[in-house]
Design a protein that fits this description.
Helices cover 83% and strands 0% of the residues. The chain is mostly helical. Helix 1 packs antiparallel against helix 2. The longest helix is centred in the middle third of the chain and has 52 residues.
């Protein structure tokens, strides 16, 4: 690195990384939480069909539905045989379609939550690294020191992995 690089360059670069990731993550969280509400509403609609048509215990299904305990609802319906002999074949087919859709959406919701958590930790880690490395490089290393350049490079690489995590999250959110 040339000797003409000012230490301020490190301040600007680290602060830009931190601010960019914080802003992007904030926007991403707003979008994802809005879409999570939609996924939950859709799962709730599917769950209502199960409560109405499932051969399983309706009172227990209602309790699970009110607590948004989707996995247990799916398990209870599956254990009950999925087909209600008191209903027509068409109604059973509709209930099974709703059941399958609910299962897909529950898996999707789980994936979105997992990716959101990963993105949060990665963002926090990169921002923390930026906050820690900023004074280290400015006060303890010269701008041309290879350690200063290495710290900045590592931070940039982790920021890129963070952005990759955002893309994975968006793929899970917008998958059909």
């Amino acid at each position: 690195m040339p000797e003409s690089v000012a230490p301020d360059v490190y301040f600007y670069t680290y602060s830009t990384i931190a601010q960019t990731l914080a802003g992007a993550f904030g926007f991403l969280v707003a979008v994802v939480l809005y879409l999570i509400q939609g996924i939950n509403a859709h799962i709730g609609n599917c769950a209502a069909a199960l409560v109405t048509n499932s051969p399983a215990d309706r009172n227990r299904l209602r309790q699970l539905q009110s607590g948004s305990r989707w996995d247990e609802m799916i398990r209870l319906h599956a254990e009950a045989g999925q087909q209600n002999p008191a209903l027509t074949a068409e109604t059973n087919r509709f209930t099974d379609d709703q059941f399958q859709e609910m299962r897909r959406e529950v898996v999707r919701l789980s994936n979105v939550r997992r990716e959101l958590g990963r993105s949060m930790y990665m963002t926090g880690g990169v921002i923390l690294a930026s906050i820690v490395f900023m004074p280290l490089t400015a006060f303890f290393f010269t701008p041309s020191d290879p350690v200063a350049a290495s710290l900045l490079t590592v931070t940039i690489i982790f920021a890129m992995f963070c952005i990759r995590g955002y893309l994975r999250l968006m793929v899970n959110v917008f998958s059909t």
